[in-house]
Amino acid sequence: MIRVVATGTFDILHPGHLYYLEESRKLGDELSVIVARDANVKHKPRPILPEDQRLRMVRALKPVDHAVLGDLHDMFRPIAEIDPDIITLGFNQHFDEDALRRSLRDRGLDATVVRISGYPGPLASSSKIVEHILNTRGPARPAGEGE
User: Which domain holds residue 25?
Assistant: First the structure.
């Protein structure tokens, strides 16, 4: 059995998330997803949805076999528990693939790292969705404009 792990924040689920998970699932027999803890999201704005809600939404997606919250102190702990054959990264995840491979190897984890390409749609990231909402529905817009 080929186990695949995908990771991410998964704030405001959108087609880009679904594409990432569908493409990840195609690489193996079982897809586990590690959802970032609120406290660990430091490379972008704090998630809008709390971690327990983001986890529940990811668990409900068809390509996902298992989903867990990440570890508060050691990002490799859940990966070691799952012991995947493949770890996928989204197109915009800020990981140096070679450094990740070395860190995995140092921890005794023998997983292939695969970068999944981006979804081609215009609103394929949570930040772009938030920006679109603010531009079309934000308080500075006159009533009825942008709908």
Answer: 3-137
pTM of the full structure: 0.86
Task: Tell me, yes or no, whether 144 lies in a domain.
Answer: no
Is a pLDDT exceeding 90 seen at residue 38? no
Helix (H), strand (E) at residue 40: none
Mean pLDDT of 114-121: 88
Give residue 144's pLDDT: 56
Residue partners of 82: CB distance under 8 A and separation at least 6: 3, 5, 32, 34, 66
CB burial string 34-70: b at 16+ within 10 A, e below: bbbbbeeeeeeeebebebeebbebbeebebbeebbbb
Contact between 79 and 105 (Cβ < 8 Å): no
